[in-house]
Amino acid sequence: MRRRKFSSIIPLLLLAAVLLAHRTGLFLAFQPERPDSLRQRRHPCQLVKVLDGDTIVVRWRGRIEHLRLLRINTPERGQPGYEGSAGFLRNLLSGKRIEFQFEEPTNPARDKYGRLLAYVFADGENVNVEMVRVGWSPFWTKYGRGKYADAFEKAQSEANSREHTVQKAPSENSENKGLSDKMSSNSLRPLRSQR
Fold first, then answer.
1. Catalytic residue among 41, 42, 76, 103
2. Which of 6, 43, 94, 103 lies 20 to 30 Å from 173 when distance is taken between CA atoms?
3. Catalytic member of 65, 71, 115, 133
């Protein structure tokens, strides 16, 4: 009798373990890379936190990773536009299926802070391009133009044609020289770009 009770609990425990492993992303850690998937593979992940307008924290393959969004550059903490760009990115990603893609699928790159450099997608939409389209960042080409250059250029053009766009107000030493010096004082709504 006791043995029968124990054997009926085993399937429930196995089911709970599988659900827990799936929920925490452990299965992703054991999926082998397929050669045919290396071309333009998007990697599913779970959003943990939005740090600012161009950096997020995700759970990928059972590990916590910091992702730096490629080809954009939003205001840093303490700069005008920081809260607005971070809040917009948070809303853009919230409750959606998140994936990311490397510039070169066979060579994942990291920046000097150890962050993975990637394009992020929310329900299939390129979030990096959308941040430019709505004006929270210029198309940032300091490290190259990338594989989505046409989409970024179109997004930049759309942002510049609207009455209100967001551009980071650069300092004298800014890496984004040539961008607008104007930014709204409340950091939530940008002013028209002046290129």
1. 76
2. 103
3. 115
Nearest CA among 69, 135, 138, 137 for reference residue 99: 69
Residue 68 annotated in active site: yes
How many domains does the chain contain in total? 1
pTM of the model: 0.68
CA-based end-to-end distance of the chain: 80
Catalytic residue, candidates 68, 71, 130, 133: 68
Indicate whether 141 belongs to any domain.
Answer: yes
91 domain-assigned: yes
Confidence category of residue 9, pLDDT binned at 50, 70, 90? confident
Q: Is residue 14 very low, low, confident or very high in pLDDT (cuts 50, 70, 90)?
A: confident
Helices (H), the chain: 2-24, 26-29, 82-93, 127-133, 149-161
Token readout for 72 is 């954009």
Q: What range does the domain containing 180 cover?
A: 39-189
Q: Determine the Cα–Cα distance for residues 67 and 56; give it in Å rounded to an integer.
A: 5
